[in-house]
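Hi R.,

Here's the chain you asked about this morning:
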Amino acid sequence: MSGTAVKDWNNLHYALAVARAGTLSGAALELEVSHSTVLRRIDALEKALKTRLFIRHPRGYVPTEAGQILMSAAENMQDQLDLLVGKMQGVDEALHGTLIITTVNTLIPQLMPMVRGFQAENPQVRLHLVADQRHLRLEHGEAHIGIRPGAKPTEPDYVVQPAISLQNTLYASEEYVRECGPLNSRDDLSGHRFIAPIKAYDFIPSLDWIARQVPEEQIVFRCNEFSGFEDAARNGVGIAALHSWCAETRPGLRRMLEPPREWRTNLWLVTHRDMHRTRKVQLFLEWIKRELALLPPEIGVQP
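And the predicted structure, written out as tokens:
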């Protein structure tokens, strides 16, 4: 490839999309262009580089050895570009623009009054709240602040601060209690129905306790969404392990046990080091810390 040059860098973007999708049609769908446009771009790039980048077969496109080298470099270029964009978003210290916050969907109803309060005080800042079970990549500018429950994030370039330790315990509806009676202790399982996740969550102590201690025949309902636990409990399906911030602030649920200390879930405030000192990020962090500190002890305690 000596002496050759890529005059249209967009062609590389198209090639990367084909490598990721494995087919021209998949790349075309992702890029929102026609099949023929993708093919023309790939042909132009191979002509410019004077080498074959993909092996064509009936089921799709597979990168050649040269294609693999180029795609690896293109991935690195994309990562560096995303990081540059994230850094540029923090250059302007004026308090305006967009602030992207990410958390899990079960915390959105509880966080919303705090988010609204911040917005009322800072109307020039546009807030985006992204709920996602996966951890968005702060280093790529997918979000500016993460509010994450569970284990402390360990990414090397992240600034991680403790926010609050959320209480967790078992809840059921009044209808359920009338039908099955109270739960006097964690050893008092006989005659009770329980709600559990479909997959194991051994890193969440309350759910891990249900998985280990409750007989399978007493688990009558499973759900893959945490919000489904609350809905099922409210409708009398059974007993669910919920964080108290959710359960105590909504009608229709009764606490079955005092929150065990070992069931507490830490809530972390996470930023990328390149964005951490920007004015709008710092202002929101100060706001949310102050608001969380006002929560009563039955909801959360300072870590």
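Residues 65-88 form the longest helix (24 residues).

Let me know if you need anything else.
M.
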